[in-house]
Prior knowledge:
α1 crosses α9 and α6 (about 130-140) packs across α8 (about 175-195). The model has no long low-confidence stretch (mean pLDDT about 95). β2, α2 and β3 form a beta-alpha-beta unit. The chain has helices spanning about 15-25, 40-50, 60-65, 75-90, 105-115, 130-140, 170-175, 175-195, 305-320, 330-345; strands spanning about 5-10, 30-35, 55, 65-70, 90-95, 120, 145-155, 195-205, 235-245, 245-255, 265-270, 275-280, 285-290, 290-295, 350. The strands form two sheets. The protein has a nine-stranded mixed β-sheet, with helices on one face. A six-stranded parallel β-sheet has the order 3-2-1-4-5-6, sandwiched between helices. The protein folds into two domains: about 5-125 and about 305-325, Rossmann fold (3-Layer(aba) Sandwich); about 130-305 and about 335-350, Dihydrodipicolinate Reductase, domain 2, CATH 3.30.360.10. The protein is α/β, with parallel strands linked by helices. The protein starts with a strand and ends with a strand. Bound molecules: nicotinamide-adenine-dinucleotide (NAD). Nicotinamide-adenine-dinucleotide (NAD) binds next to α1 and α4.
Amino acid sequence: MSKMKIAVIGCGKIANIAHLGPLSKMDDVEIKYAVDLIPERAEAAGKNYGAGQALTDYKTALQDREVTAVYVLTPNYSHYTITMDALRAGKHVFCEKPITTNYALSKEMADEANKRNLILNIGVCNRYHKSVELIKEYVEQGKLGEVYHIYCSFRAFRSIPGLGGPFTIKAQSGGGVLIDWGIHYLDLILFITGIKTKTVSANAYSKLGKDISKYVYKDMWAGPPVPDGVYDVDDMVTGFIRTTGASISFNGAWAQNIDAEEGGYIDFMGDKGGIRLRYGGHFTYYTTENGALQTVKPDYNIPDMYTREDLRFIEAVRKGIKTRSHIDRVLESARLLDAIYESADKQVEITLSS
Ligand SMILES: NC(=O)c1ccc[n+]([C@@H]2O[C@H](COP(=O)([O-])OP(=O)(O)OC[C@H]3O[C@@H](n4cnc5c(N)ncnc54)[C@H](O)[C@@H]3O)[C@@H](O)[C@H]2O)c1
């Protein structure tokens, strides 16, 4: 099989943690270009992962007819422009989550990909997590009975990412903890249950990161802070969602004055059984059998979800198939994020059109 030539655009944190490694190990893939506005980052991708040419302008890679697909691993606002440019240049695209900063632009991206018969997958990596797949099977097999409520908590102690930079500037990120972390939780809930959302009532708060120079933190993804930067996004969000099936409630915080020692989790409450999924880890299944309570902690190996999503993307491009993370199947969660923010802004319940 001939090697598929790809370009990786954006060589920051997620490129290094999730994608460059798996892609560099695939026998049938060649990373022909590594692109980043910061030249040293593109060059490091060559040194560490054998990527070919280092570039600062992604358009050079798009002009190369040999390039079949591109990875868009840049800040949220640029997903739209870079993905649209890549599709118009005839390239298949893997674009990190969230699709982009809002639903309208996300829909345009989907329409462009479909019009051109090109694959556009979104980095909803949890759909490739072994625990998520198993819970989906449990739900479909009726092991939980009727799932009537789902609660998720994605709260951290003091973990605002890239304070002052693209993560915390609303015009560039589309929002804060909800669009950055909440997307993973809400998207995997929709994926597991297949429910459609009906109404949303939410509140969002921007409190702890406001004074950038005084913010005290434990860790910072994509840091260090930008002291003269901007912070105008949510660092805490809460809400209630009615759906065609189970209702959903959620609390999320990039930062709060409570140590969230238990980490993130999702509770699936059914009338026959319940499940607590430790985000990114294993799950516990609670049920009853012969009049006795049962607590089951299934033991299994969790393969790297990023490797699995990358393999499936390359396969999707080769075979021209829509996999579980094709943009068409992720738009529903983008629409939900918009409605949550609208509800918080207007302080009213929002009805999502069917
Ligand atoms: N799937 C996940 O779990 C996950 C986790 C973290 C981040 N992400 C997403 O990945 C994206 C990137 O996040 P990150 O944490 O890697 O951020 P980052 O800041 O560490 O890296 C982004 C990189 O993109 C580069 N860049 C910006 N504009 C560019 C352009 N026009 N051309 C080329 N390079 C450009 C920046 O210089 C930077 O090196 C975000 O959309 C984020 O939401 C996904």
